[in-house]
Amino acid sequence: MYYQHDINPVFFSLGPFINIHWYGMMYVIAFFLGWAIARYLSKLPFSNFSKNDVEDLITYVILGVILGGRIGYILFYDLSYYLSNPLDMLKIWQGGMSFHGGFAGVLLVLLYWAHKNKKDYIELTDFIAPCIPIGLFCGRIGNFINGELWGRETELPWAVIFPSGGTIPRHPSQLYEAGLEGLLLFLILFFLARKNPPKGLLSAVFCIGYALARCFAEFFRIPDPQYGYFSGCFTMGQILCLPMFLIGFILLYFCKKWKEHPDYDTVRLKDGSLIRVRRYKK
Fold first, then answer.
1. Rounded CA gap, 11 and 161, in Å?
2. Residues 13, 17, 21, 25: is their CA dihedral positive or negative?
3. Where is this protein chiefly located (predicted)?
4. pLDDT value of position 282
5. What's the pLDDT at 84?
6. How many angstroms separate the Cα of 139 from the Cα of each of 18, 69, 103, 120, 239?
């Protein structure tokens, strides 16, 4: 007997006109958890970012995720539809957020923030990297609750019958992605972040790890109907992961150079803790 998906996408209602959706609530939870993780990382002895930096960054990240995610979805996945129905561009509670668009949006706002605050850009992306997967986890749970982005047909015992997918049991591919690009990637990055990693490593691991997880999960997921498969087997999500692979391996290359010639010296204090001291450059 397969699980019949019947989750109400509305979290609660305020009167007949205001509905608070689970999808939106998952974004709120994601931002809160990301903020909490960043606060924790800022307290590590070798962190180059303070509590005040985190409080300032969160607003920029929220704007980057929401604007970039929505614009990316419109451009990458269904531009013709939204040009014909421009008001639907605002209906983010119905879903329709692109990770790759949100990722690009966050990179742009972080670039601005780093320039404004005279911070190293790669060190900033390293700092933010462990916070992103937990947001991906929440987003994919939101997709599952919405009953969207379901997987291919399967007879596995954990298959789910989604209302919008007919009577066919399908892979709960949203949960696969939540586990791989969300929870698993978070645990890897969080473990590395606490080990005083060299500059660029966390950003590289995130890019490569996400691309691998997403490409694998896409084999269980129905492709976007407006595109189908490219060359008979590749999805739009997999194609958009290719630049992330490239960026990740480029960062690994430079990571070795930065490790050999770091901007910081690591100093051990009398109590055994480690701190970073920026080298003076003439």
1. 21
2. negative
3. membrane
4. 41
5. 82
6. 22, 11, 13, 29, 20
- Interatomic CA distance for residues 171 and 107, integer angstroms: 32
pLDDT of residue 272: 61
Instruction: Confirm if 164 and 7 have CB atoms less than 8 A apart.
Output: no
217: its two tokens: 């999960």
**β-strands 160-161, 3-4: how paired?**
parallel
Residues of the chain with pLDDT under 50: 280-282
Q: How far apart are the first and last CA of the chain?
A: 71
Q: Is 194 annotated as a binding residue?
A: no
What are residue 276's DSSP bridge partners?
Answer: 266
Q: What is the pLDDT of residue 279?
A: 54
C-alpha distances in Å from residue 61, one per residue of 19, 116, 211: 25, 15, 21
pLDDT digits (tens, 9 = 90+) for 33-73: 999 999 999 999 889 999 999 999 999 999 999 899 888 88
